[in-house]
């Protein structure tokens, strides 16, 4: 959730640079971080689009109009929840309706009043930050701060369709802590919770920012690795297995290991992909635990 220590950032897209400079001044004075783009195409080619908290868009622009730009932002997984405000000379009611229909949260007409624009921006940002916070709570596992089961399903579904559409690689790792029931029974549930937290931390420390780690069940974890081939996924799984095995515990008798299965998407749907990976995890358990089993032989 944003607070005073992190500036909200706003992208202004307008082909009239005098307008975007004016807005830049007004909003920078309010302690917002403001970037500008002079066309829809320029805006869409930025690789930091998901970092913005709000978009302020003109409508009449040469290469791509504001409606088209807004629709493109609303179609992208990374920007669909970012509020869009139109700031335009189009004052007809049907223009406004069209703006709301393509996903804008607000519509301000030029010439605009600076204080009114600031007030609208502030309110929409507040709603956005509150919603982000609630969403974060709803999709996170409270104990480990990893994503929860339902988010993992939703996200994996997205990644599968994205991977198929762009003919990329998608790999999946499923882990299960070895002998976790015995840990709980011997050292108590509080220790068990600490183990889950520390193992989760290790997983997070090893994966890349674009990977997605979740707590899939009681002591079961899952890692989605977009754009990752089978051998690279295996390396990540091995690294996690080793780092968990090397963790230090207050109680010197405690030894924590995990088993894992690694697979890469072929043509499976969500359930088939999970099941395929889960079977490998099951094999790792039966092959003596503290092991990673993969779908294909791994080149060394
Ligand atoms: Mg214009």
What would you note in describing this structure?
The N terminus is likely disordered. The protein has two domains: 128 residues, Response regulator (Rossmann fold, 3-Layer(aba) Sandwich), CATH 3.40.50; 146 residues, 2-Layer Sandwich (Alpha-Beta Plaits), CATH 3.30.70.270. The protein is 47% helix and 17% strand. The chain is elongated, with a radius of gyration of 24 Å. The two termini are 44 Å apart. It is of the alpha/beta class and 300 residues long. The chain has ten helices and ten strands. It binds magnesium ion.
What is the topological layout?
Layout: E1 9-13, H1 17-29, E2 33-37, H2 40-44, E3 54-57, H3 66-75, E4 84-88, H4 93-101, E5 106-109, H5 114-139, H6 149-166, E6 170-177, H7 180-187, H8 189-206, E7 212-215, E8 220-226, H9 230-245, E9 258-264, H10 270-286, E10 292-294
Parallel strand pairs: 1-2, 1-3, 3-4, 4-5, 9-10
Antiparallel strand pairs: 6-8, 6-9, 7-8
Helix pairs in contact: 7-8, 8-9
Magnesium ion binds near residues 14, 16, 60 and 61.
